[in-house]
Amino acid sequence: DVQLVESGGGSVQTGGSLTLSCAASYYTVSAYCMAWFRQAPGKEREGVAAVDRDVGVTYYADSVKGRFTISRDNAKNTIFLQMNSLKPEDTAMYYCAARGGYWCRTLLKRADFGYWGQGTQVTVS
After folding, report:
1. In angstroms, rounded to a whole number, what is the distance separating the alpha carbons of residues 73 and 28?
2. Residue 101's pLDDT band (boundaries 50, 70, 90)?
3. How far apart are the C-alpha atoms of 113 and 121, rounded to whole Å?
4. pLDDT, tens digit, for every residue of 68-98?
5. pLDDT at residue number 26
6. Is there a contact between 2 and 98 (Cβ–Cβ < 8 Å)?
7. What is the mean pLDDT of residues 22-45?
8. With bands split at pLDDT 50, 70 and 90, how would you rate the model's confidence at 37?
9. Residue 20: which of 113, 108, 111, 95 has the closest Cα?
10. Beta partners for residue 94, in sequence order
């Protein structure tokens, strides 16, 4: 079965940077739409960035455009989220998600993804 494991979260000051990783097992990430979501306490989970299957077109939420970059390393079967110029409002649990059998085509919703990691906490203060 598909397994996703996030890592790289932590606490940083405003303006700092972090890189999150999502390692996948038992499938090839290039064959899936892959995405990063985040969820703050009391709020709904929201899509942050996505990288499409095969050709790897990327999509971003307006709130992170120009600051976050999603990428895919096919050799390592891992996706990354490089986060720069972090703001307090970026504080959340960040989740990796996979969508099998479909292209992303856009930044999708939580219900569009069938596989999820356990999450990694990012705190900006």
Report:
1. 10
2. confident
3. 20
4. 999 999 999 999 999 999 999 999 999 999 9
5. 85
6. yes
7. 94
8. very high
9. 95
10. 38, 120
* Cβ pair 86, 94 in contact under 8 A: no
CA–CA separation, 18 vs 10, rounded Å?
Answer: 8
Distance, in Å, from the CA atom of 125 to the CA atom of 90, rounded to the nearest integer, reads 10
- Amino acid letter at 30? S
Residue type, 70: I
Q: How far is CA 83 from the centre of its chain?
A: 10
Q: How many Å apart are CA 3 and CA 5, to the nearest integer? A: 7
Sign of the Cα torsion 68, 46, 63, 107 reads positive
